Amino acid sequence: MSSTAGFLGAEALLRLALSPQTVAATLAVVLASVVIYLLDPIQRWRLRKIPGPPTKPLLGCLQQLRSLPLPLFLQSCAQTYGPVFKVAMGRKWVVVVANAEMQRQVGLKLRAHAVLDPDFMRGRMHTIIESNLFRASGETWRQLRAAWQPAFAPASLAGYLPLMTACAQQLAARLEAKAAAAAAAAATAGGGSGRSVSGGSVDMWRELGAMTLQVVGSTAYGVDFHAINEEDEQQRDGSNGSSSSSSSRSGGPAAVADDGYGRQLAAACGQVFRYSSAMHGSAYLRVAMLLPELRPLLVPLAHTLPDTNFTLLLQARGRLCNAVFQLIDSWKQQHIGAKGEVGDALHRSNGKADAAGADRDSAAGSARQSSSGAGVGGGGGLPGVAPGSFLDLMLGQRRQQAGSGRGGGGKKADAGGHQEHQEHAPLTDEQVAGQVQLFILAGYETTANALAFAVYCIATHPEAEAALLREVDEVLGGGGPGGGGGGQPLRLPAESDLPRLAYTEAVVNEALRLFPPAHLTSRLVPTTAAGGEPLTVGGYTIPPGTPVFLPMYIAHRDPAVWPRAEEFVPERFLPSAGPLYQSLQPHAGPAAAAGPQQQQHSAHAPFGYGSRMCIGYKFALQEAKVALATLYRTLTFRLEPGQQPIKIEASATMSPRGGLRVTPVLRRQHA
Ligand code: HEM
């Protein structure tokens, strides 16, 4: 009886559900939802008072970005809509603050980055990515920032110098060989009688990228990446870099290297960079950019039915992940012993993240097993972690914290230069792995782009080139044909030379002004749940939860701040030019109240602002200076036809579009 009644009830319900009225109502609701979804009226309403360019449903401003790189698009918007405007990146609304002083204020006030590109990994790899310094906020950020500090202490920076110099010298030697071979070929053909000899053309951006990857990769992991020669072999025979290198070893932290191992890591890094980008990456990444709400569906789908590019990304990430855990294990065995007291404390500190990463990716999960039993030097070919490398410093600091049975005793992160003492919990293995990978991610392309733009600026400004060569010759000697240095033998830059390379540093700073590789940084107005309140800037109110872009590219070219804003004038950064040169740290007071030089100084922000300022800026400046001085000791670079004016492209970083083709010209042979 009751089942008959139930059946009749279900039938009536079904009839009602299929009635034309219900179907029409459902369709109307679905249609309204789609329209609401596409037009995003709530966010539009919240930002209604802020001006901005026209947008398309779903695409936002992405169509305009097909014809104009992001920095130039934002610059043109600033000219039309003023210093504060809104743009839609797909379905994500962002407020852009384009004025230098306003940028500085927002950069100092807000302390979390707006992360617009959620990662696609799962399990342990996801834990690793999400635990990096750039993505962190609040107390976790303070803990991580404190853990990074020792890597940029003066002693650590001095320790990296031999590796930086060796890598730059390796690149210089490679380019010299190319120039010499081309000159010999030209002489054979009867045309090589000039004073300086030029070589075949090279993509200097790629060459510098190989060098910076070798520097940051080797420093981060503590094994030699051999990226410079990796690049060579890839170009020569299209291999994945499995053949051995004939080059000299780099010095410094990476001296205990294993050739094949580092080579594979360099290749994996290259693949991660390539396949994480919207342009070369998986189709799933592109769909997620347009429809971020679908991400919870797309992530499992991508892992279940990966396309080729996603498979390659997973494999490369897995290799890097395996490597870092192998190296951590290797380090523990070297310094602690598998069952030592401190070792136990470290394992305990890892418990939390292990639980968080219970659903592990198999590639990463197998890392422990494959590395178990790898002793110092790794048993089956696994190299040990080089002393003084980033990984070594992080693990050493963690060991001290765990050994003292407390949360460590780092100074509070450099938020506003405070020096208060703060205790932090030791990092987990996953957190250490996250920082090591970020070190490469943050330091490789940025510095390569900075150097490529510097080479372009030097090649297009003969007076600046002459001043640079004069300084390099004076400081590094070399009295051969065409060289200065009072007849001193040519040598590589040492630590004591760095303060004397003032013009070289000014060249780097001016190139960073005109072409900041990090063309913008971001902040998130904290949500109300996180205790946030609306941000007021330039007379506009920006609601909690809104991402804010701070495009340094625009501030760096503001004619109201910079005399001859579009010109390359390194002299403005010389010590004799006043306080501009003193430090890259932002100063405390409002810049507008200071003189024009102070205003310029605060407007020069290639490394960002305040407590979230780039933690690696001293590393980057040292590397760039050493690289330029070492390369220009023996070489100059002529632009190939069609390279001027330079075209830029921008995603996470800004780079020369299509690379930078130059011809290396030998100034002289090595002494
Ligand atoms: C020319 C080279 C570089 C440029 C132009 C650059 C630029 C930047 C910028 C603009 C930021 C964001 C700052 C902010 O939001 O206020 C940043 C953050 C960061 N950079 Fe760099 N960077 C460079 C090299 C490096 C290097 C070599 C490393 C490490 C070895 C590094 C590590 C980081 C890290 C970890 C962060 C996040 C800091 C935090 O959120 O607390 N960067 N960088």
Short description:
The chain has 671 residues and is an alpha+beta fold. It contains 25 helices and twelve strands. Strands 1-2-8-5 form a four-stranded mixed sheet, sandwiched between helices. Strands 3, 4, 9 and 12 form a four-stranded antiparallel sheet that branches. A two-stranded antiparallel sheet has the order 6-7.
3D structure, described in words:
It is globular and about 105 Å long. It contains 25 helices and twelve strands. The protein has helices at 2-18, 20-39, 41-46, 62-67, 70-81, 100-109, 123-130, 138-148, 154-188, 204-221, 227-237, 259-276, 283-290, 295-304, 308-335, 341-349, 351-356, 362-371, 390-403, 429-459, 462-476, 502-514, 552-555, 596-603, 617-634, and strands spanning 84-89, 92-97, 197-198, 202-203, 520-524, 535-537, 540-542, 547-551, 635-639, 648-650, 654-656, 661-666. The N and C termini lie far apart (104 Å). The chain is an alpha+beta fold and 671 residues long. The strands form four sheets. Strands 1-2-8-5 form a four-stranded mixed sheet, with helices on both faces. A hairpin with a 3-residue loop joins strand 10 (648-650) and strand 11. The model is unreliable at 236-257, 338-380, 407-421 and 581-590 (pLDDT under 50). The site of protoporphyrin IX containing FE has 27 residues, from helix 20 and helix 25. Heme binds at residue 614. This is Cytochrome P450. Keywords: Heme, Iron, Metal-binding, Monooxygenase, Oxidoreductase. Belongs to the cytochrome P450 family.
